[in-house]
Amino acid sequence: MSDTPAVSVNHLTKVFKGSLGKGAFRAVHDVSLTVKPGEVYGLIGPNGSGKSTTMKVILGLLNATEGDTRIFGIPSTEVASRRSVGFLPENPYFYKHLNGRETLHFYGKLCGMTGDHLKSRAEEMLALTGLEDAATRRVGGFSKGMLQRLGLAQALIHEPQLLVLDEPTAGVDPSGSRIIRDLIIEFRSRGITVLVTSHLLEQMQEVCDRVGIMAHGRMVREGRLDELIAVENQTEMVLENASPDLLAKINALVKAEGGGTRLLRSGHPRTTLERLFLEATNEPKKP
Amino acid sequence: MKRKLQAAAVLLIFGVLKMPLEQRVTHDLRTMHLVDEPLHLGVKGNMGQMGLAAAFGGLRGLIATVFQLRAHVEFTRVNWAQVDKYYGFVTQLQPRNARYWEEASWHMAYNAASYYLYNKELKPALRGQLFHEYVQRGTTILNEGLALMPDNPRLWQKLGDLHWNRSKDFKASGDAYLSSFQHGGLNFTERFAGFAYAQANDPDSWTKGYAILKKLYDEKKATPGLIEFLKMLEQNLHIPAAQRIPDAGPVRRATDPQAGPLRQ
Amino acid sequence: MSEATQSSAAVNVAPVRFSPRRVWTLAYATMTQLMRMKILPFLLLFCVLVAAMGFGFSTINPEQQLSQFKTMSLGVLQVFSIVFGIVATALLLPKDLDDRTLYTILSKPVPRFDYLLGKLLGVLMLIASGLVIIDAVLSLILWLQQSMLFDAAVSQLHSEKQDTPEAVAQMREIVARQGLTWNLHWAVWAIFLKAAVVTTVALLLSCIASSTLFTIVIAFCITIIGHGHAMIREFVLQPNLSSASVRIASFLLAAICPDLAQFDVVDSVANGEVIPWTAVYEMTGIAALYMTVYLFVTHLVFVEKEL
Ligand SMILES: Nc1ncnc2c1ncn2[C@@H]1O[C@H](COP(=O)(O)OP(=O)(O)OP(=O)(O)O)[C@@H](O)[C@H]1O
Ligand SMILES: [Mg+2]
Cα A84–A88–A92 angle (5° rounding)? Predict the structure, then answer.
């Protein structure tokens, strides 16, 4: 079982058919990726690059135009592939007439859970996501961050082996977002596989083992995070309280060295993933 | 896409297969008098949008009731032509409902006819003429209803009432009562048939009336009124004394041998 | 990711089966969801209206009053249940889709058929409970009216010195036939069957288009055509009456639409007609057939639907 990938996407292409005569739109183009059991995989890319579309195909909500997707080896077209998956869609919303606890019971029952097991599991999830106080409040009155946390609780209710999170920290305040990241790290330590998208790159850098960068429906980079952001022939020096004098001296030293050595840039440091992201996705935009 | 084609195919194949079934169920329900025949196109035009809604919306009963209420309003305004028109719609929409035929006829033969008969503003000759016309209209309506439901005892009974009370055509009344009884009407319709025949002008009817009343007498179902009529018939038909019924006690003179129509 | 690992993993997996408990969960959630849409006050208002109507009619005679009351209330009930079935169904699916609730539900191990059946049952359960409540209210009113009207009619006969046993017996017969009988419940059952068929059709339309307006408009059209189904059918089955294109179009209409006039026993019940068991069986059977097939077609449309 351990060598069966948690998620495998093989040459996935997704074309949205235009309505009546209007052109079709290719949202995902020949994307392949593999998420190994127990790892945290980050899918990043600009708005409209096809991340959510890929996730929906993985979860069987959309049909692949070409290629196929599997969860733990089971094709996404089969309902059984979703036995052990928890999904948090972007901007989740729930039946607003239910309260927090009832919502979790509802989703638990859908997964075939019953009785005390379901009840205790729901309380556990409410506690885990910090929603104890909102357990009896109607979802209709939940704030965006609370909805997001409820979405996470709902995704976890049946103890899935794989979590698919679409922008889990969107709209969540910094402390809430911190909690979510800590949760992801904890899931990894418990052996739960996580597939996550986000725009907040520092956060991704913190939790992901591997990342895939998508742009215009294509996978432009993929690999282990530390490998991807390590640029072998470059060295970065981060100085504190460096005087302009010192910088000038260093500059001079580099020039004096000659050969292939060049100073590419100096200035205030950036998150490396962010730089990578910008480089990777900064291709001329197709219409 | 494949599934969508399958869906369309299933829908069509089922659509074809279901039609004979629907035809049969509709036929069954119609023979059980639970579902109406479709309306004639001409009728819908006259009734306007309401009629159209009635034909297609499955709301014929509801709309008939609305027309009936309208007719009632016209009735309170003594606008008889309108009452007749609305009841025309009502009976078209619900032709299998005997009650509507009965009411339509009652409005014409009793209410409208009496209204004209006692209308002091009209010349006496005209009063009589209008009375007869409206009684005739009421009779026609009942006969139309009976053409659709020839074995409805209730309508036959009402026709008997009508001939007895309004047109004083006792032979016709007797025929109608007898028909009512033969089609499962209430017991007293048989007796009324006898009473009506007894009051007719022709000996044939008397014979019929005598047969009915004598039978009832022999079955010990005699009422004071019945004995009265029977004695009258014995006299008229010259029944031999031996066959006549005994003079049992003093015969009470019934005020009205027939309870009459229920309405006033 | 060799072929072997994949197939060995796939072999271990049992397919997710249909589960009545899951369908119940979905149906119950749908029902409560609809109840929160302020349906109940509406229902109560309807009951009050019906009650007012029952006692407020101008009386010509007791029979007319009872029959009119039945026709009116059953007619309104029929319109109400059909409108409710169509509108509720047309709202539900697009709402789940817009709210992305559908994503969270279908990303659980929930077969899409279970979801559809749950939605349908939820709507039907609510219609059924509404009808049961109103049936009870109607029965109560009819029963009260029946005895009231009978007493009033008898005392009137008495005051007119016409209370012969025959007249009283006839009055009793009339009032009993028009009053509360089992037929009333069968009429309500027929109303439910018709509403259920229309609701299933609305669910199918909703899956085809996931547009509320489209579903409502087309469902109402089909409801109307369905009532004239017998006419269309007889037209189609008649030999050589009109052009081929008209015949084909009529044929398609007749094939697609259910014959809703088969459930129109309400008027006959208001007339005091007796509904035999055969009629109940036939109506129930054909409604079940329609619903099964339309639900199956809905499933075919929905199972590969892009969400
Ligand atoms: N149902 C649909 N029909 C047509 N086009 C769609 C549909 N869903 C998504 N798209 C298009 O596919 C492209 C990819 O969308 P997707 O939601 O996957 O992007 P994303 O990477 O998740 O973006 P974001 O970061 O904004 O969430 C977009 O251009 C979008 O307009
Ligand atoms: Mg997205």
Answer: 145
